[in-house]
Amino acid sequence: TECVSGCVCPEGLFDDGRGGCVKQKDCPCIHNNEWYSSGDKIKVDCNTCTCQEGVWKCTDDVCYGTCMIYGSGHYNTFDGKFYDFDGSCEYVATQDFCGDKNSSGSFSIITENVPCGTTGVTCSKAIKMFLGVMKTLSNRSATPLPAILGVIPEAELLYWNRTVGLYLVIEASNGVMLIWDKKTTVFIKLSPDYKGKVCGLCGNFDDKANNDFTTRSGLQESNPLNFGNSWKQSPLCPDVTQEIKPCDLKPHRKSWAEKECSIIQSEVFKICHSKVDPLPYYEACVHDACSCDSGGDCECFCSAVAAYAQECIKAEACVFWRTPDICPIFCDYYN
């Protein structure tokens, strides 16, 4: 036969995308721009995916959704939308009664935000969890305030609270879990039964990030400030009208903030960069490090880096970033 121009594999073999030819059973798979050999496994949320003949085959377990609120007004919704909102008021983080007249709700989680630092940015100071019982967590004290009893008709909700490492965990029998670091980081986890049935600053948990900015009145917003303002608990609170840029207000802190936060984009986190985009977490870190100008500088910085590390762990990229000099944790004390 005559020659054919170009590079081709012999009959029965396949191009492996890396300059070689392999049998079909050995075809690799690609994920986040990284190649994986046949038989390799990766974790996607709570499911395990296995590379088989060039195609990912995944388990179809139903996964809990997670919303993260941390630092000075950073939100990562159940559907993965990352945005900033600096309002000084009480806001609905998430709840399952969303304007439908026929619906009844089993829970509501409220975040109370207060100014932290002198630039006007806000941090979550307290979380209120309504489950028929109300738990108030305040970072003035590591001990939760006494529960205030309420009533939920036709349902008896049980809840458990326990300490896991640095975190206080409250888990309720209706599939709602609250994880708090006793500072400014809160994780809210919901069972998949709530998909598409919740609303608030954490979005609607319907696996689509582009409609997360749904206001209290059910309208779609593109502006995070208008969206956030719609979820305030008291009409007496002022609306947020402009995004605060603390590094512009405190330029003398900017170079320090950028230097400290560069760890997120450094070799230390390299294994995670292809799995979780570091840029929004780096920008949030710089924002926080500039804004914490009335004490707690290190705490703000450490919480911001820990938020990225947490997302890396979820993506199965284990990163060891804490050292005796950078945000140490004295494990013997907690053990």
UniProtKB/TrEMBL annotation:
<dbReference type="GO" id="GO:0031012">
    <property type="term" value="C:extracellular matrix"/>
</dbReference>
<dbReference type="InterPro" id="IPR050780">
    <property type="entry name" value="Mucin_vWF_Thrombospondin_sf"/>
</dbReference>
<keyword id="KW-0325">Glycoprotein</keyword>
<dbReference type="Pfam" id="PF00094">
    <property type="entry name" value="VWD"/>
</dbReference>
<dbReference type="InterPro" id="IPR014853">
    <property type="entry name" value="VWF/SSPO/ZAN-like_Cys-rich_dom"/>
</dbReference>
<protein>
    <submittedName>
        <fullName>MUC2 protein</fullName>
    </submittedName>
</protein>
<feature type="domain" description="VWFD">
    <location>
        <begin position="65"/>
        <end position="238"/>
    </location>
</feature>
<dbReference type="InterPro" id="IPR036084">
    <property type="entry name" value="Ser_inhib-like_sf"/>
</dbReference>
<dbReference type="Pfam" id="PF08742">
    <property type="entry name" value="C8"/>
</dbReference>
<dbReference type="Pfam" id="PF23244">
    <property type="entry name" value="VWF"/>
</dbReference>
<dbReference type="GO" id="GO:0005615">
    <property type="term" value="C:extracellular space"/>
</dbReference>
<dbReference type="InterPro" id="IPR001846">
    <property type="entry name" value="VWF_type-D"/>
</dbReference>
<keyword id="KW-1015">Disulfide bond</keyword>
